[in-house]
Amino acid sequence: MSQHLQLFATCAKGFEPLLFDELIEIGGIEVKQTQGGCWFQGTQREAYLANLWSRFANRILLQLGQCPITQVSAIPAEVQATNWSQVFDPAEPFIVDFHGRHPEIRHTQFGAQLIKDGIVDYFRAEGVERPSVDKHANVRIYAHVHKDTLTWYLDLSGESLHVRGYRQQQGSAPLRETLAAAVLKRAGMSATVNTVCDPFCGSGTLVIEAAMIALDRAPGLTRTHWGFTSWRQHQPELWQSLLIEAQERFAAASAQSSFHGYGSDYDAQVVGIARTNAQRAGVADFLTFSTQEMTTVTAPAEQGLLVCNPPYGERLGEEVETLLLYRRLGQLLKQQFHGWQASVLAGDETLLKRLKLRSKKKYKLMNGALETSLANFDLTEEQVEFTQSQSNDLGNRLKKNYQKLEKWAAKEGVSAWRLYDADLPEYNAAVDVYNDYLVIQEYAAPKDIPEAVAKDRLWHLIDTLAQELPFAADKMTLKVRQRQAGKQQYQKQEPRGLTTVVHEYGVQFEVNLSDYLDTGLFLDHRWARRELGRLSQGRRVLNLFAYTCSASVHAALNGAEEVVSVDLSRTYLQWGERNFALNGLRGRQYDFIQADCIQWLREQRPQQRFDVIFLDPPTFSNSKRMDDVLDIQRDHIHLLKLAARLLSNNGVILFSNNKRKFKLDEAELAEAFLQAENLTERSISIDFARHKGIHYLFKVTHRE
């Protein structure tokens, strides 16, 4: 009778119940589920079968020894007590993989060295030449610390079992074969399922694994390298008999099966890779791959199982396209796959909500370090009724705003305008139009609103925008706008370079819709910019806190004699120079100065005078390159006094800021011999009229 071996099968978090059932089916004895895998006993036959047939395990480990950790210095001697000559030939190199931590073993390299020392000491004591260590060795010793116990094993698998051998090429976001198998199992895949479809097939992993399940093909049948081939107890004849048995099972199932799988992807290159992978896996005759967009996929004649792993959209800027992709997937499932079973693996629970389908079961599965959600759907008539019962108050508001404001903008001569600004309080975001682009800016949710609820509402807003308005998904971008301080201020986004040129009263501006929290053009200040232009003909103009110099362009195009733009940022001033060039403005009369505006004002001689000064400071600023911290409510009089030193006798300061509930200190202003006319109400155009406190604008002059 064959000796029972103590074995441990490792797996990804969440796969343990699947692996438990699988090991019992394979023939394991006393299978025990634990975190990260399952213990089981079996003969050498069961050890081989687990390697050959497990769809969920990463490695099959043979326990060699175990000891309590009392003294670290004693570990090599404990390891040496194992009969290593029965494990591997010292002529073969080996490697130790050490996992876990202990107060006395804080580094895996140190732990691995303790194991290596014990092995080398054993062979040295046997009087044979010590084996060498090689990171590519076929003999892999796996050591693991749990609490105060150290266990060491021989890795019978060698390379991880998720490497089946058929996928030598892959797409940009490959799904591990073991995860694909787990997804299929949770989705209800079995030998009785005759049709499987994946409209996001990539390199084909899901449909290939489905075919292997349907056709009773062992997942290890394509592999050529195994850890146990260097094991001294390896029985080649037994292993060969199990391979032949597996091949016969596959041949028998293939001859009788009516299974067929369909995979499609928009990328022709990865579809070609999928075909090659299917060929290597031996299941190409049972699969059809096509190059097409998900929205054009049609359901095969026979109903079955649709299972897919759509893109997660993890990178900044991909959120909108990913969200709308899921919405279109939901529509596809309802329209084309009615009556099917469907399973969708998503990186975010809120993505699944965008499908607008009621799931019958959900599972959490780990895709590497990323926790994913798998949802199963029964595509019955009830699903269609469920999605049609939702209120469309938001959609009605968006359509109403768009119809009204689009006509106004065209008549006004502006191609950048605000469409929506938290009109409905639960949808706390602003939406701006820039030509045929939309920029969605999410405001920080109140603290009493759970993050998941806020995110779901935001994505419902985006979903509705795409459904009700004529804007393509690839022309929408999402930004998170919240109150910022310190280093967060003006924080740059992940570069995407999404730019366009917009028009405003005959002036052109370059805007960047993706790379900064602001686009380079403050839309609510357009009236102030036009007013500055009206005041500038034949006059000397100073623009402080110039940003991208949009106000300076208005002044220059309206015939200003001189325009000086001052800002602390070289990036924004260079942007401003591009705006000047875009409008055909060149000449020495246009000056761009990089400086701290407050410090620059202090350093200027009073003899230098300007007829018009545009002063649009930030509400708060503490840039490292500024000498002072600017708080506009506290400091506005001081700032106006500094600017007034450079103002000609009949000059005008247009002073604007965006501080909510700002109050001009008229008493102190009068003490500085200045007076102000409040232009705020007339400066707020119709697209910002819903929020009267969006900004404040004053016309400041010397007191008569």
TrEMBL record:
Reactions that this protein is recorded to catalyse: guanosine(2069) in 23S rRNA + S-adenosyl-L-methionine = N(2)-methylguanosine(2069) in 23S rRNA + S-adenosyl-L-homocysteine + H(+); guanosine(2445) in 23S rRNA + S-adenosyl-L-methionine = N(2)-methylguanosine(2445) in 23S rRNA + S-adenosyl-L-homocysteine + H(+)
Cytoplasm listed as a keyword: yes
UniProt xrefs under PROSITE patterns: N6_MTASE, THUMP, UPF0020
A Pfam cross-reference name: Methyltrans_SAM
InterPro entries the UniProt entry points to: 23SrRNA_methyltr_KL, DNA_methylase_N6_adenine_CS, RlmKL-like_Mtase, RlmKL-like_Mtase_CS, RlmL_1st, SAM-dep_methyl-trfase, SAM-dependent_MTases_sf, THUMP_dom
A GO CC term assigned to this protein in UniProt: cytoplasm
Keywords: Cytoplasm, Methyltransferase, RNA-binding, rRNA processing, S-adenosyl-L-methionine, Transferase
Organism superkingdom: Bacteria
One MF annotation (Gene Ontology) recorded for this entry: RNA binding
Domain THUMP residue range list: 46-156
EC assignment: 2.1.1.173, 2.1.1.264
Family designation: Belongs to the methyltransferase superfamily. RlmKL family.
Function: Specifically methylates the guanine in position 2445 (m2G2445) and the guanine in position 2069 (m7G2069) of 23S rRNA.
Protein name according to UniProt: Ribosomal RNA large subunit methyltransferase K/L
Name of the gene: rlmL
